[in-house]
């Protein structure tokens, strides 16, 4: 149930019969002339508790931003009613923007994290959800931290079991994810314990890696290693790992990612504010490193992957051409090719699906029926090719243009 059975063309002999049968069963959806069917999007990086801050507080570098705005907000999720209110609204918004699968960071609080899973179930969204582990007293505040490495690991294991229980009543399965916040927030003991859990339960892992000068420098200063090496040492880089940002990954990190099958969640809007560099997406794709797209709410201000595709294209063009007008054109740019709207769309669909090992992101027999019906947002004055219509949608669609959303064939919007 929930998979695309067949793509049938009008020219096929049984087309009319199949259509009639679907109609009789009340299962026929007919698109209007200006509507198009696209695969649902996969958002590879969302901090669910940060939704109330989306669109504010982007005026400080990462470490100050965490301490000043983000940790105080995340601490509020000890209040389960607050969590319910925010998570219901967030999941509605993401589905509304055509996003059918999301890889979420929760908070340290398991009850709130379970509310996020329930919101996904209620709105027919596929969630991958992590209880955030952060136990390092030097880098986290008293009011928002796991009490110890042991409790960070034990609470993660409890959350895994709670999610397994919840899934017994779920139409769309929700997956628990091992979630060390990032190297600075965790102690070696919690990283080690979480690596053990990832192996024991064969679960996805998510974290942040090489995401800013400060964070990159932290691992070098405290471990005398790159943060990718630290995560690898504790068994946290696997073919089910998704690492956010990666703007400062070097070639040896990329080789490790390739070898282990680790995916990068590219968060182009957030990277403008916190990344200190632009992720060279075309270079990663050429090297067969898996890459998907993330909104990174609230480091990224927008819940729309359409907006993030646009920013991914624009950032890649600036990376290619360079930005310092005082340099000669030959010195100004880099060798990294700019990416296209199609490449961005690939990241938001196939790239995300490969990163999470799910059969979705393509409209093909045997793939999950995760779909969005999008109305063309722009007028057309001449006959246009499908490519032109596609580009207009990618560059201009907003939430209001996403008319219907299906996840595993179940209506989630519209
Ligand atoms: O963009 C980010 N958002 C966060 O919440 C975070 N925590 C660690 N590193 C982070 N980066």
From TrEMBL:
Q: Which key words are in the record?
A: Hydrolase, Metal-binding, Zinc
The Amidohydrolase-related domain covers 36-411
Q: Give the reactions, separated by semicolons, that this protein catalyses.
A: guanine + H2O + H(+) = xanthine + NH4(+)
The pathway it acts in is: Purine metabolism; guanine degradation; xanthine from guanine: step 1/1
List the EC numbers from the record.
Answer: 3.5.4.3
What the entry lists under Pfam families is as follows:
Amidohydro_1 (PF01979)
Q: How is the cofactor bound?
A: Binds 1 zinc ion per subunit.
- CC per GO annotation: cytosol
GO BP field: guanine catabolic process
Q: Which GO terms describe its molecular function?
A: guanine deaminase activity; zinc ion binding
So which cofactors does this thing need? Zn(2+)
Q: What class of enzyme is it?
A: hydrolase
State the family named in the UniProt similarity comment for this chain.
Belongs to the metallo-dependent hydrolases superfamily. ATZ/TRZ family.
- NCBIfam families, alphabetized: guan_deamin (TIGR02967)
| Role this protein plays | Catalyzes the hydrolytic deamination of guanine, producing xanthine and ammonia.
Q: Give the protein's recorded name.
A: Guanine deaminase
- Species the sequence originates in: Lentilactobacillus sunkii DSM 19904
């Amino acid at each position: 149930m929930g998979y695309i059975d067949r793509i049938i063309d009008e020219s096929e002999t049984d087309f009319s019969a199949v259509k009639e049968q679907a109609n009789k069963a009340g299962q026929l959806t007919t698109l209007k002339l200006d509507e198009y069917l696209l695969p649902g999007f996969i958002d590879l990086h969302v901090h669910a508790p940060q939704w109330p801050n989306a669109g504010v507080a982007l005026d400080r570098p990462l470490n100050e931003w965490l301490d000043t705005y983000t940790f105080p907000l995340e601490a509020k999720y000890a209040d389960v009613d607050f969590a319910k209110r925010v998570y219901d609204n967030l999941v509605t918004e993401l589905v509304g923007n055509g996003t059918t699968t999301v890889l979420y960071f929760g908070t340290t609080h398991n009850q709130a994290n379970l509310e996020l899973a329930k919101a996904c179930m209620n709105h027919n969204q596929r969630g991958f959800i992590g209880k955030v582990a952060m136990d390092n007293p030097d880098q986290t505040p008293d009011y928002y931290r796991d009490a110890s490495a042991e409790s960070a690991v034990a609470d993660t294991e409890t959350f895994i079991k709670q999610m397994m229980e919840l899934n017994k009543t779920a139409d769309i399965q929700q997956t628990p994810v091992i979630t060390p916040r990032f190297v600075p927030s965790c102690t070696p003991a919690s990283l080690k314990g979480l690596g053990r859990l990832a192996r024991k339960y064969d679960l996805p892992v998510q974290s942040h890696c090489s995401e800013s000068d400060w964070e990159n420098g932290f691992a070098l200063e405290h471990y005398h290693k790159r943060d990718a090496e630290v995560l690898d040492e504790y068994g946290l880089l696997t073919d089910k790992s998704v690492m956010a940002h990666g703007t400062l990954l070097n070639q040896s990190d990329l080789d490790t990612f390739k070898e282990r099958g680790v995916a990068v969640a590219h968060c182009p809007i957030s990277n403008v504010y916190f990344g200190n560099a632009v992720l060279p997406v075309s270079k990663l794709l050429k090297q067969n490193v898996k890459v998907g797209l993330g909104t990174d709410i609230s480091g990224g201000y927008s819940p729309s992957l359409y907006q993030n595709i646009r920013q991914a294209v624009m950032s890649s063009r600036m990376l290619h051409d360079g930005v310092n007008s005082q340099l000669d054109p030959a010195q100004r740019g880099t060798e990294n090719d700019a990416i296209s709207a199609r490449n961005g769309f690939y990241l938001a669909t196939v790239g995300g699906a490969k990163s999470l090992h799910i059969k979705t992101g393509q409209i093909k027999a045997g793939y999950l029926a995760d779909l969005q019906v999008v109305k063309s947002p722009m007028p057309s004055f001449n006959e246009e090719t499908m490519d032109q219509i596609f580009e207009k949608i990618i560059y201009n669609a907003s939430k209001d243009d996403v008319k219907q959303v299906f996840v595993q064939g179940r209506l989630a919007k519209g």
